[in-house]
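RECORD TYPE: inverse folding
INPUT: structure tokens
STRUCTURE:
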């Protein structure tokens, strides 16, 4: 059963951060936005096929046994490689950003005064990428269909020519 809902998952163990970002994004995008306080909870709902997951790096600050953002990113990309992930973190260390990108994050945004606008830009870029992939897929299907039709026309003309000449 296909669903018309388009989801964004916000995963941050700071509920206030989740709510502020949800409010900001819901004013600018037409997605159903779900918030999670742990990566493990978000992974349980991945069957909803979110287009975008915004993932905090430090998900284990309140729950010491919880996985951190990079561990969740690895698990998410392993099972859902087409879901775009934006890492959102207070960490401005280049190693954290490069690890995030290495494991499949689309972008890395450092929390701060420009974080929400950078998040909006990244999501606009992801939407554009999604649109281009959809158009590309439609072109591929059209070209395949036309190739099959042309092939059938050629085969039919050969068959008719063969029957006309040898019959």
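DESIGNED SEQUENCE:
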């Amino acid at each position: 059963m296909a669903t018309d809902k388009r989801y964004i998952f916000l995963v941050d163990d700071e509920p206030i951060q989740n709510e502020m970002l949800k409010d900001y994004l819901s004013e600018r995008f037409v997605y159903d936005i779900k918030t999670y306080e742990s990566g493990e909870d978000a992974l349980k709902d991945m069957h909803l096929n979110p287009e975008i997951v915004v993932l905090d790096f430090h998900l284990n600050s309140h729950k010491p046994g919880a996985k951190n953002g990079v561990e969740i990113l690895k698990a998410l990309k392993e099972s859902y490689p087409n879901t775009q992930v934006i890492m959102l973190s207070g960490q401005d260390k280049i190693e954290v950003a490069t690890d995030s990108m290495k494991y499949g994050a689309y972008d890395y945004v450092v929390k701060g005064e420009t974080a929400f606008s950078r998040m909006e830009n990244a999501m606009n870029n992801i939407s554009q990428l999604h649109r281009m992939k959809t158009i590309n897929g439609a072109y591929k299907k059209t070209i395949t269909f036309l190739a099959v039709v042309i092939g059938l026309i050629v085969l039919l003309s050969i068959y008719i020519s063969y029957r006309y000449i040898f019959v």
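NOTES: The first helix runs from residue 15 to 26.
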